[in-house]
Design goal:
2 domains, binds pyridoxal-5'-phosphate, 14 strands, three-stranded antiparallel sheet, Aspartate Aminotransferase, domain 1, Aspartate Aminotransferase, domain 2, 369 residues, alpha/beta, globular
């Protein structure tokens, strides 16, 4: 059999994830595999917890990477927190809000949603009104809605929930590593992310963090967590304490990759990393504007790392994306759901957010549009 891996040529990943992986992260993945209870590996696990706490600006002890992609982190939050008939409010303005609704509904929660127009942010006043009518166990929102390119007002929503018993769950899959997150200051109780967006790691891990109030809610459950693999009360025994107990074999080499990716962000400096995302976002908006390609989202709530743009009239969506990939080795994303066929999603996530990539995409788009 031919070795298919021999033919893999690098692609500049400028879609909604995965993003370009830093060479030192790829090198980290190929370090020797240690045993999952080897003291040297446990030191790396502990360091990853510290890195995550630093970058999420949280004191939460329960801050660990879950084995699985961002959706596993989403599932982990809901499956540990939700019991049948729990009242849950989900703020929806894109595909990933809808996915949260699906996950919570499958667990038998009483799910209500507040829906906002795609391409626009959640409106805090509308949420406030809803919270005055009824109290919920949990309110959930997506920080960076990757399906539309919108940033939702997480600090404002968190503010509404401070001093209440309602837990605040935030999807930070696309925002983590690309823009500021202050978990404790913003009153976030549960948060999940993913490695293949702004952390510039391959997909496979989902950093999560739980506040003391969220941990108390898990401990107060009347029923067992229905999913064995994601049951935090079991997983904690592997990630905490002087002696570590086997739960499932940690994806050792993926964790090396995550360590290195977080190391890079801390080394470059958070502020510098966020500024680099912003600068390249501005560079892209300007280049596209000159070509008559316009942004979907208002400048006040645009994501720097996910640029939703209208496909120009008369341009063949699939043909352009396919030519970009075949001829120029650049991947951009198609529209999802309501936006399918209407928009492109151009990612500037993590290691992708560099001027040379913006310039290469702009030049290539000119030849294929
Ligand atoms: C990508 C993404 C997810 C899902 O992550 P997977 O790694 O694909 O499972 C969830 N939420 C948001 C906002 C995302 O961008």
């Amino acid at each position: 059999m031919k070795n298919l891996l021999q033919d893999i040529a690098p692609v500049t990943l400028m879609g909604p994830g995965p993003s370009c992986v830093h060479p030192s992260v790829l090198a980290a993945l190929s370090k020797p595999t240690l045993g999952h209870l080897d003291p040297e590996f446990i030191r790396i696990m502990d360091a990853i917890k510290t890195q995550l706490k630093t970058l999420l600006h949280t004191e939460n002890d329960l801050t660990i990477p879950i084995s699985g992609t961002g959706s596993a982190g989403m599932e982990c939050c809901f499956v540990n927190l939700i019991e049948k008939d729990d009242p849950v409010l989900i703020l929806v303005n894109g595909v990933f809000g809808m996915r949260m609704q699906d996950v919570a509904t499958r667990l038998g929660a009483q799910v209500e949603t507040l829906e906002f127009e795609w391409g626009t942010p959640v409106i805090v006043d509308v949420v406030q009104k809803k919270l005055k009518e009824k109290s919920y166990k949990l309110v959930a929102v997506v920080h960076a809605e990757t399906s539309t390119g919108v940033q939702n007002p997480v600090p404002g929503i968190g503010n509404l929930l401070k001093d209440s018993d309602t837990l605040f769950l935030v999807d930070a899959v696309t925002s983590f590593g690309g823009m500021e997150i202050r978990m404790d200051d913003w009153g976030i109780d549960m948060l999940y992310s993913g490695t293949q967006k702004c952390l510039s790691c391959p997909p496979g891990l989902s950093p999560v963090s739980f506040s003391p109030a969220a941990v108390a809610a898990i401990q107060a459950r009347k029923t067992k967590v229905p999913n064995w693999y994601l049951d935090l009360s079991l997983i904690m025994n592997y990630w905490e304490g002087a002696t570590r107990a086997y739960h499932h074999t940690a994806p050792i080499n993926m964790l090396y990759g995550l360590f290195q990716a977080l190391f890079l962000i801390l080394e470059e400096g958070e502020t510098q990393v966020f500024e680099r995302h912003m600068e390249n976002h501005r560079r892209l908006v300007q280049a596209l504007d000159q070509m008559g390609i316009h942004m979907v989202v208002d400048a006040s709530c645009r994501l720097p790392m996910l640029n939703a743009v209208y496909i120009p009239d008369g341009v063949d969506d699939a043909a352009v994306r396919s030519r970009l990939l075949k001829t120029h080795k650049i991947e951009i994303g198609a529209g999802l759901g309501n936006f399918a066929g209407k928009i492109w999603r151009i990612g500037l996530m993590g290691h992708t957010a560099r001027a040379e990539n913006v310039d290469k995409l702009a030049a290539s788009l000119k030849t294929v549009c």
